[in-house]
Amino acid sequence: MNLNLIWLTPAKFEREWLLTLLASQGRSAKERDGSTSEMYDDEPLFIMNSVVKGYEEYFARYEAARIPYAVIHLSDEYYRDSNLFYDHDMCKFVIRNYFHPGLARMPKVATIGLGWRDGFAKEPVARIPWLEREITVSFAGNVHHELREQFIGAFRGVQPNAFHLTRDGFNSANGLPLPEYKALMANSKYVLCPIGHWNIDSFRIYEALEAGAVPIAFSITRTQPWFYWKALFKTEVIPFIQEASAQECYEALKRRQANPAAEAMEAERTQQFWEDAKRRWGV
After folding, report:
1. Which domains does the chain have, with CATH numbers?
2. Is residue 250 exposed (0-12), middle (13-18) or buried (19+ Cβ within 10 Å)?
């Protein structure tokens, strides 16, 4: 099945991830760069985020003209984007990449994980077997708020570790180049995945999973008072480490390390869980 993907947003951070999910379902995509000044009548699947100006008015034109369309709605991290078009008769479905319980209950809405950044899986790094990985816990990224400070601080005593910290914003020029970032994850047993800018979710979760590492993340926060991963993955059993606080995550890690055989089995379960999720999310 060929899909007509129209990129309304110029930012294609998730392109590789989305095309991977499409390919997993045996679907190919014809991609075009679009704008809200042009109309399409070939069952378009629009890819948009809040950067796209006037998208509500644009989709209203499709509703008025009775032209069917669908939307992949990206980057609504703060849940501030307008979603009035979700109720349009002509809007056949919406795929989001940030879970929200209210929006997820809408019959047309499905949610997928954020996935990895564009280019992350283009040249895969060979996965190192779990028992041969040299780093117990790692983190490479920006430390821009207190919760990240707390999270990293809780694990500083875990050895061997590898932390590459920056403090100058997203996509820092001082960050690890992508090949080194991937190699670090591929050689780590666990990757710290504290919250993004505000949302509990982050690209790092999925990049760690794709690299064969086990994420360590918050399960719930004050601003997102639901168990995010259980809701997103639609299961009560999440095999990676996720707890309500950094200290509880640290304690969960120590419990796993107390039984190396069981720890290795949990790592294997995490990888199977991830492969199952990718198959289920095929858009």
Report:
1. 2-111 (3.40.50.2300), 130-280 (3.40.50.11660)
2. buried
Nearest CA among 255, 4, 16, 30 for reference residue 117? 16
Residue 81 structure tokens? 């984007």
Q: How far apart are CA 44 and CA 183, in angstroms?
A: 38
Taking alpha carbons only, the member of 178, 83, 175 closest to residue 124 is 178
Distance between CA atoms of 57 and 82, rounded to whole angstroms? 11
Torsion of CA 110, 111, 116, 118, to 10 degrees: 50
Amino acid present at 45: L
Which residues is 243 bridged to in the sheet?
Answer: 218
- Could you read off the pLDDT of 47-57 as tens digits, one per residue? 999 999 999 99
Over residues 183-209, the pLDDT tens digits come to 999 999 999 999 988 999 999 999 999
Contact 231, 222 (CB under 8 A): no
Burial level of 48, CB count in 10 A (0-12/13-18/19+)? buried
How many CB atoms lie under 10 A from the CB of residue 127?
A: 15
C-alpha 241: how far from its chain's center?
16
